[in-house]
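Subject: sequence -> structure tokens, single chain

Hey, anyone have a minute? Need the predicted structure for the following. Not urgent.
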Amino acid sequence: MADKSPRTIATINFKGGVGKTTVTWCLGEVLSTTSNMRGLMFDLDAQMSLTQAIALNEHTGFLEDRFAKWYQTAIERKKTIFDALDAFTRPAQHFDFGVGYDFIYPLADTFHFVPSVEDLYWQELEIFDRDGVRDFIRRLLGKIDNCKQVPRYDFVLFDCPPSFTLLSYSVLSCCDLILIPVNPDFFASKGVALILNSLRMRIEPHPLPKIGVFMNKAKTYANAPTKEVQFYMREVKRVCDAAAARQKIEAKFFDSYIRERVGIKRAITGGGVPQEMVGDFQSLWRECVQFLS
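Reply:
Had a minute. Here:
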């Protein structure tokens, strides 16, 4: 593959229940299984929803046992994301934290994972300095990029917590794209407006990355969004366009949408992405790439 930096995408939404974690997983799985790309995914949420779902994977008992043993060893050897953050924030010390397969878990040959840990609750209590944490993710990605034990990744996905934490700040300060899933309901446009209006303030003085908003859990009829979903899509697009013009930020509402399907709920825990929905995530990725070009 070409010697270039991976595309870094952070999935956020400060409203729970929008499918942020599922979307992050499904996008990574589809890209790593339907293309020649290699991907890395981070769970940065102290609630550990993504990590727990992977631990409960129903494909085979083998994967569950293998992950459980690996995870326990990572904790014992202090090779977790929290340990990396702790090493980075030690005063007057070099960022001495080795990365490899003791820190990165290989879900599959082309899809790897850095899990969350309960200790991340401590960073939410702000025992770390905001400015001191700012460059953590950037430096950590640099270590991973230069590590000969793991492959060069084509994309890196971050499942961010539903609240704005120091790790969120570190991710948003260096990622290429912020991806915001919304649901077709009354709170969609209002929620997007709140996020877009606050993001610049949250990461100042750093420039705001590009922001892509898309509809998740979209009900369809005859292979098209229902009239109700189309209404909410127009409303969210209007909010994005207004925020982009008023705040001079690069925010776009994507034409791509992820359909509502029952099978998607089991995507992480063993069902995999339903075949009929693979195209949804491929379309979403194409828009991400086009927007970043």
